[in-house]
Design brief:
By secondary structure, this protein is mainly α. The protein has 17 helices and no strands. It starts with a helix and ends in an 8-residue tail after the last helix.
């Protein structure tokens, strides 16, 4: 068992990625506190959904714009510092905000100003590690990201438990975490030396590897192939499903007697399960027969987790807050392990098909499609939950997954027309 952790632990050359820990601790902490703050100010599912919706739109636009800047101006560390500095300032603004509309505006600005950190981190992965190490490096990046989120959730749980569910004051903690990420990014990223990605590793672009990826991503802005359209529709459906579930879930917990600190504890369990699973992700992918099979199997635990929550919302297990919290813990573990399997496999296939020199733009497009799925999911959830109830909304989330699985089956069976970029 220790061997798996040792082989997964990053080499010295990956220490630049440590800025992700405080950065993601800050973003996840603030994004969890703002919905609680909205609910405490008298908002409901619609207000929470609106905040997530506008943040997702801003993030979509930001991903595309930051992606182009990353390529054209060769920006790297500056994008991270701008995102972290903006986050620190906006977290302080959250503490002083006293109006629902101001909180929604802050959430929107966070979405736009921090959107460039994801694409630039993925570019770092491709530039700073050999092609053969991309999957392992991506898994390590995901682990560092999740570690930051777990730190934020656990800190939020302890903070709100001692400060009597004062979600507003936790924003100051988030601001401090963002400042730490500024320091770490400015001192670590500048010393990173590029790997052989732009040199000898170009030879590793074999037809067999590219056949598992998405080779013609430039055409996504113009004439897309049927195969690419299927991939994008499926990607969008996955994140629509995610936000159909997570957008109304915090209000659902609050309405069923779960405290703010317990909500942070639940999200700690959610992200901690990913941290524990990730060191074994590569072995699980191999055992399942590769990325394509992993993606197919990844839908099963996620579907079971969402349906178990829908069953509780329908009254199958009564209305005990203790039972709900227990079911939430188990469902969150299933949902996030499933996401880890799916995300690592799709990222590996995606990276293998990216052409040289357009990494920022391609990751920007990918982030934009994810953003579209997120804001569609949030706006649908914001309308569906008040009108049809939580059971129907969670069932809609589960219902998207079979269609996503079907789209992936169609995608993986369609032949690729090879094009050298």
């Amino acid at each position: 068992m220790l061997h798996h952790f040792h082989s997964f632990w990053p080499a010295k050359g990956l220490t630049w990625a440590y800025y992700l820990i405080p950065f993601n601790a800050s973003t996840s902490g603030l994004s969890t506190a703002i919905p609680l703050y909205l609910l405490n100010y008298g908002g409901g599912v619609k207000e929470v959904a609106l905040a997530i919706f506008l943040s997702a739109i801003a993030s979509t636009i930001g991903s595309l714009l930051w992606g182009k800047l990353i390529d054209r101006m060769r920006l790297r560390t500056a994008v991270i510092i701008v995102g972290a500095a903006s986050l620190s300032i906006l977290a302080v603004c959250t503490y002083f905000a006293s109006d629902i509309s101001v909180l929604i505006l802050i959430s929107t600005m966070v979405g736009f100003l921090t959107a460039g950190v994801g694409p630039v981190t993925n570019v770092f992965v491709m530039e700073r590690s050999a092609r053969k190490d991309w999957v392992m490096t991506s898994s390590w990046i995901t682990l560092a990201t999740c570690a930051g989120i777990v730190i934020a959730m656990l800190a939020g749980y302890l903070w709100l438990m001692f400060y009597h569910d004062d979600a507003r004051s936790f924003a100051i903690v988030c601001s401090g975490l963002a400042m730490i990420s500024i320091i770490m990014a400015s001192t670590l990223s500048r010393n990173v030396k590029p790997a052989s990605y732009l040199g000898a590793d170009k030879k590793e672009l074999s037809p067999n590897a590219a056949n598992q990826g998405i080779k013609s991503w430039r055409s996504m802005l113009g004439g897309m192939t049927k195969r690419e359209c299927i991939f994008l529709v499926g990607l969008c459906l996955y994140f629509i499903s995610g936000n159909l579930f997570f957008t109304p879930y915090t209000p659902f917990l609050k309405e069923n007697g779960i405290s703010d600190s317990e909500i942070f504890l639940a999200y700690t369990i959610l992200h901690l399960s990913k941290v524990i699973y990730l060191p074994f992700n590569s072995r699980a992918t191999s055992a399942l027969g590769g990325e394509n099979n992993t993606i197919k199997w990844a839908y099963v635990p996620r579907l079971i987790g969402i349906l178990s929550i829908a069953a509780f919302a329908a009254g199958v297990a009564g209305n005990s807050a203790t039972i709900l919290l227990t079911i939430t813990f188990v469902a969150f573990i299933a949902i996030d392990v499933s996401f880890s399997m799916w995300h690592t496999a799709t990222t590996a296939l995606f990276m293998r098909g990216i052409s040289l020199g357009n990494e920022g733009k391609m990751f920007g497009i990918n982030g934009g499609v994810v953003g579209i799925g997120l804001f569609l999911g949030s706006v649908i959830a914001g309308e569906a939950a008040p009108q049809f109830g939580y059971t129907a909304t969670f069932s809609m989330s589960a219902g998207c997954l079979p269609y996503r699985s079907l789209s992936w089956r169609c995608y993986s069976r369609m032949p690729i027309k090879m094009q050298r970029q």
